[in-house]
Amino acid sequence: MTDEITQGIRDLNTGGGSGGAGGGRRDRRRRDLHAFANLAPGYGPAEGNFDPNAAASSVGITLPKANAEYPNAAFAAGGIPAPETTAGPPQGYPQVQPQYQAASPATSNVAPASASAQPPLSVPVLRHLSDLAYRDSPFLTFENVSPPPAGTQYVVTDQGNASPKFARMSLYSIPATRTLLDATSLPLGMLLQPFAPTTEPVPEADFTSASAVPRCRRCRAYVNPAMQQTGYQMVCNLCGFTSPVPNDYISTVDSAGVRSDFYQRPELHAGVYDLKVPKDYFLDSDGQPPNILHHVFLIDLCRSAVQSSLSVAACTAIQLAISSLPEGSKVALVGFDNALRFFDLSSSHHQASVSVVKDLKDPFVPLSSASAFADPKESYDVLEATLGTIEQVESPTAVEPALGSALLAADLLLQPLGGGQITVFLSTVPSLQPGALRPKLPQGRIALEYVRDILTPGNRFYLDLADKFTANHVGVNFFVGSSVPVDLINLSVLAARTGGTSQVWPHFNVDRDELDLAHAVSGSIRNAAGYQGQLKIRCSRGLQVSKVYQAMRATEAEGTASGSAPVFPIVGCQTTAACDFVYDGKLNTKKDAHFQAAMLYTGVDGVRRVRVINSIMSVTERVADVFSFADQDAVLSLLIRETFSRLPGDSIISVRNTFAARLVSIVSRYAAVVAKNNNAPGQLVLPRGLRTLPMMMLGALKARALASRTVSPDSTAESFTTLSTASADRVSIAVYPVMYALHRLTEGECEYAEKEREQDYQSYFSLPEAIPLSQAQLEAGGAYLLFDGKQMILWLHSEISPRFLQDLFGENINSLDQLDSKLSQLPVLDTLLSQQVRGLCHFLAHHYLGVEDHSVHICRFRTDQNEVDFLEKMYEDRSSELVWSFPELLRYIHKQVQAKRDEAPSESKRFGIF
What we know:
alpha/beta, Rossmann fold, Severin, seven-stranded mixed beta sheet, 23 helices, globular, ADF-H/Gelsolin-like_dom_sf, SNARE binding, transport
């Protein structure tokens, strides 16, 4: 099966060949006008092997029969349709207890779930088959059409078109007209992650000593592989204008128009590259080079921080983080309670020295920059002594932290340096002015109105501070471990608008959460790519950038094809942005549509660069092509950002209904204009590329961001921030977490495949097939690992095999009663099961979060309180708030589609699907 899948991928090239109609590999030096030579899909039922680039509608899905217990659907109080009954999902388990054995092909008595056993709408099956398809074959950015699903392990071969790791288009076949786009109800936009982690470094071109960077004189697009070169001139692929090239960039060209330095210059053959730019691009008008990125750590030292040991955990995290700083980076330490404490880190000192500032309304810095900032290597002794002094604080008298004053002081430290990064550790709600916050409590309000209040950033101080930090190129990350709500949304807005992140650990427990805190802080420092960022998005004539979605808000563009220029004080692996496009004319189907995103930034090494990302899409007049080549991960992220940007102006009910209605609209439009004759009355037909979109959107509806039952206000705000700002991989794992049956692991799973040759693709991690998120999938005596991008929960049934416990936790553990519920790290044992599970946990943490390790929370069946969190993630079951189960959602969609089809006349001929 794997060989057939691999062969199918290798043969895939939009119609049998990567070149024109005659097949054969396209000559990379002579580019046709079309990005894809043959986009005609087949519309029969899917047969044969899984094909991640197939351009066909999905096979008709026979709807589940109505459950006698839940026969009808109605509108619940939450605003979205749901069954009338309040009964929860079934919680029964099979009565047969599987006997655990040491996993091996010969001894495993429970066969892994097969792809064929699951319906074609299964998210776990799609992910698993996609992983297998790209195990031995790279993704070719010009020849392959649709990108792999988010979260897939794959290696990219850059063919002059951007990797989907950096840019995902919602549509890979662009409608020629606005009328055609409206007929699909799909968004047309781009999801960007300019500094996505990759196995290979991004190629770099050095223009620091050049007279100018080659750019179009009309639209200011940067030189890229799609521009036509004549040696002395270049023709812009975006606006069509012919511009002269700088004198020191002139080169000879051959008869095909290929420059003699084509292979030596990445800007001529790579889809994504960095340009090192001259001093004309410096922020300083005097041409002074920017500084290396500096860091300020703000440590909460009030009573709650000491009692919960957050201050100790913060020192551990800082020690781990500064060990990975690049050469030349410097750090400063500032403690805060009801006063500010500046630590002198001069290399001449060997013990901690502190200066206290009690003026909170107008804070100042009592130390010089040379004393406040230190090189971690040169000042190692004094840094260790200072952190040790902070750890030894035992009984502080201050109760309230002066967070606002500490942030202002950090800005004063970084402003003379041109900006930098602030990392904040907070243990309780900051109640001192400036920037005082108060916990938002229900106080008898309607649940959904309370959630809306939780998601409303109403503190003017932090909104103004976001503008000030942006102007000074200062970014901030918040790491909150509090036993009470801290009104996180105000802090999250400040972090998001300055390019940072915010993470919260409610009821922080140092034994349980210290590992995650340390790796999260270390990852935020290690993954920083630079600061002083500014993004520009450009597109072909006929299109305009309409809105840019960044930092939990939608910003209107300038109304031109070059769009607006959002500012990112800090940029890194977590940096994302999205935009949508509108039409100002008709696109020419004889030409491709071109898009370019350019991020001007200062690297962590103080070098000014431009990260250029180029995407090429075909243009079509066939509505079927639009649906067939849609990317559900980009569509999902754009719909979430568009819908969530309406908060807090719209109510939660309105947001829920808008989100659900858009899903129905997309499916109904497909049924009306493409699949009118392709399904029986009892079947629901979805576009193949969007076949798991209903389940993903259902997961978004069930996320804590839109839940009326608020477990933790700060967790609700964190969920909202993640869905609104995260990358496609993070959004995918958040709306549909992965769950693995650990008692079914077999030999060969959960390990990296060995490279046969040094030049082979990156090591592939052999993941077991995940199982659907339903309680019906849980077995008596089973063990399941669930990961949603935030928590990693190990759920253990009460009838779990003692041998399984011994292999995973040690020979002295024979029953669940002997397990420590506060256990956060699995013991390192020399058993196959231990190696597999620890390897799986490490892979998930690194693959999705970019961190080295992640804690595992033990959850015993009907014993531990966090079982509520585990069952909350069973997104295919009906939730406690009357949000659909997955079969109920499909029945609802089908009913709405049938109703719309009966109301509207056929439109298929109008858009020429044949």
